[in-house]
Amino acid sequence: MRRGTKLYSLPALLVLLFFCLIVLFVSLPILSLFVKTSPDSFLRSLDAPFVMDALRLSIVTSVVTMLIVIIFGTPVAFVNARYKYPGKELIDTIIDLPVVIPPAVAGIALLMAFGRRGVLGQYLNLFDITIAFTTVAVIMAQVFVASPFYIRQAKTSFEDVDRSYEHAARTLGATPLRTFFLVTVPIALNGLISGAIMTWARALGEFGATIMFAGNFQGVTQTMPLAIYTAMQGDLEASLVLSIILVIISFAVIAAVKILMRRRLIHAQD
């Protein structure tokens, strides 16, 4: 029995060891940000003009990005969840593509499309409309890389809606549009909110596409990730402050999504 117990305990110990190593590997760098920053230096660096500019710009652009993605992405997700049409798989693949392509590639692609000599940008330039290296370019880069997170989640949420409720509403005289807003959306709301939160978080942390397409100009295109990159060259405390803010926001986002998904699961079981 003892020999069998030892054979059983060895794999268990290995699993426990691997578990602890992974948790330590992930948590140690994050905890190090807080260990290396004192409350005084945090507050002092928080008052730096470029820190506040980056924080303000990141919040504004990411919120605008989230609203744009919700407005335009919701119909796309609903159509892909409910209807079949030629080329649907190709469209789904194209929508998901920004998730897997490198952010730098996304930035170059946007520049080649909307830059002053881009496929579309060259015609916009004739009307003195410049997109690249502006705040609009920041939002476009964020929309490009973050929209799949909402569309994929929204599509799944719409697919999970019990259509018998929609049929009941239609038999009671509700129009398709009224049924969508009063029946479908409320049922899928938790999934839509979690997708919107993930989209906002992805937009907030966007770096590669932004620096390639929008540049790194303080107060105009320098978001928090770009400000961290710039501050690393001369102001480590400021970069730590911005990093801690992003870590706190990311933790809050993940916690919010988990709570919403748990509520969704409980609601589905009921």
Would you give an account of this structure?
There is one protein chain. With 270 residues, this protein is mainly α. The protein has two domains: 1-35; 39-269, MetI-like (MetI-like fold, Orthogonal Bundle), CATH 1.10.3720.10. The protein is built from twelve helices and no strands. The model has no long low-confidence stretch (mean pLDDT 89). It has helices at residues 2-35, 39-46, 49-82, 88-100, 103-114, 121-125, 135-160, 163-171, 176-204, 208-213, 224-231, 236-269.
Defining key terms:
81% helix; 270 residues; 2 domains; mainly alpha; MetI-like fold; 12 helices; globular
Largest sheet: none
How much strand content do the residues show?
under 5%
Report the principal-axis shape: globular
Low confidence ranges: none
> Any idea of the CATH class of the largest domain?
Mainly Alpha
| Structural class by SSE content | mainly alpha
DSSP helical segment count = 12
CATH topology of the largest domain: MetI-like fold
Mean pLDDT: 89
Radius of gyration: 23 Å
> How many β strands by DSSP?
0
Which CATH architecture of the largest domain?
Orthogonal Bundle
Task: Write the element-wise H/E pattern from the N-terminal end onward.
Answer: HHHHHHHHHHHH
- How many domain regions? 2
CATH superfamily of the largest domain: MetI-like
N-to-C span = 46 Å
Transmembrane segments: 12-35, 55-81, 93-114, 126-151, 180-201, 240-261
Family: Belongs to the binding-protein-dependent transport system permease family.
Domain ABC transmembrane type-1: 55-257
GO molecular function, one term: molybdate ion transmembrane transporter activity
